[in-house]
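Intended use. Records like the one below are meant for learning the mapping from a protein sequence to its folded structure. Do not use them to infer anything beyond what is encoded.
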Amino acid sequence: MKLSYETPPDGTVRDWVDYRAQSDEIAFVFAEDNRTLNWSDLRDEAAKIARAITAQGIAKGESIAILQPNGREGVLAFYGAVYGGFRATMINLAAGRDAIAYALDHCEARIALVHDSVSDMFESARPEKMTRLSSFTENAVELHNVSSSDHALLMYTSGTTGRPKGVVHTQSSLLAGGWAPTVAHRLTDEDRALCVLPICHINGLCVTVMGALVSGGSVAMVEKFSASRFWNQIKTHEATWFSVVPTIISHLLHSDTNPDEQSKSRLRFGRSASSALAPDVQTAFETRFGLPIIETMGLTETAAQILSNPLPPGTRKIGSPGIAYGNEVIILATDQSECKAGVEGEIAIRGPNVMLEYLKNPDATQSTFHGRWLRTGDLGRKDVDGYLFVTGRLKELIIKGGENIAPREIDEALYAHGDVVEAAAFARPCKTYGERVEAAVRVCEGSSLTAEELIATCVEKLGKFKAPDHVHFLPELPKGPSGKIQRLKLQEIL
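Structure written out for the chain above:
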C-alpha cells in the first residue's frame, strides 16, 4: 500500500487500515475530550466491531445502519462496518424522523450501530426487523473476504426533489474519494485536518476521514461547528488545513474571533465545498484572515471532490471550483455531445470515484449515466484553461418569461452587502412571467438592512429583470447536514 499522486489507491479499505496500523501514529484527536486514537488501535477496534457484526450472521455487502454524531464511536462504527466487508450506511441525524425512517427501511439493514444520544429517535424510526448492536465482545469468527469491487458505503441524498436516493460506493470508489483531495491539496502524513462537518455527509467522510487514511495524515474532529471556538480548535490541535462550506465561511467572517499568528503560519489552506462560494465572501475572508480559500466542488455520487482550484502559487480563479483532479469532467450539450470551451451545458464526470449505482433504483441509475459519464444535473461551462464555472442547477433554474436565470447570480449580488450572512434566491410561480424571482436572507445581529436596499443592490448589479421582487428575512435558512442551504425548501416554507 503506497500513496501515488498519479494513480488511485488499489486494494480495499481493510488493506489500507492494516497498512496504516503498522505504525503508532495518531489517526484522530477528538476535540471534546482531547482523546486520541492511533492507527493500530483503530484497526484493532474496527476488527472487533467487524467480527461482532459477522457473528450475527450478516452477509458480506449487507447494510449496517450507522446513527452516530461526530466522535470516536462514529469513526469506529464506520471503519468497523467497512473493515468487515459490509455496507456502512451513514444516516443523516438532522434529516428528520420521516427521512430517517425511510432510509432505515430502504437500506434493509438488520443491524444498527447507534449512539446513546439518539436512542429514542432510533426506536421511533427503526423497522421492526432492525436491532441495535451495542456489545462488541472478542470472538474468533473469521471475517469475510473483501475485494475492491464490493459495496462499502451507502449514503442518501438530501431528497429535496423527491424521495432520497441511496448512493452506493464500492471499496475502490470510497478510497478514490479520499485520494482526490489528497492529490489536489498535496496532503501528506504531516497534515492534520480540522473536521467540523458531519461524517454522515460525503464531504466530512471522504475529504477528511478517507483523506487521512489515504495520505497517512490525521484528523482533529469536533462534534459540530462553532464560530466562537473554531480558531481556538485550529490552534489547540495544530491543524494544517480545514474543509468547510460557504455558510461556515460567512459565519466566521461575521464573528469577532481571529486566528493567532502561529496558527496562520501553520495553516496551509482552507477548503470550501458543497455549494458555490460568493466571490465577495471569499475575497473578504482572505483579506481579513490572510488565509487562502481553495474553492472545490463535489457530489455524494462522486465520493465528494471532482474539482479543485490549485494550491498557491498555482492559479486560482475566483468564482470557479477549479479543474479536475483524479477524474475527468466535461460539459454535455442537450444532444449529449461535448461542448466547446465557453459553451454552457450539463456537467458530467467520469473517474474512479464515481458511484456504482442508486440502491434498488435502476431507472434513476440509468438516467443518471450517459455511458460511463455521470450526469450531475448542474449547469456550467469550461474556459480555455480547463477551469469550470457553475452557472446553476437544472432543477433550480428560475425561468422568467422564457429566460433562464441562475439563482447563483442573485446570491452573489446579495452577499455583496456586508450585513448578509446567508442568502438564497428561488423561484415563485407567477401568472405574468411563469416564475418570478424571490430571495431569502439572514443578516448579522443588529443590522437595519431593508428589503428595498437589497433589491436596489440587485437591480444595480444585475438589472431589474433578474432582481428579486421580494426579499424575506429569516433567522436561519434551511440547510442540509453539511450546512449547504437547501434552496428548494424555501419554496415550501415561505
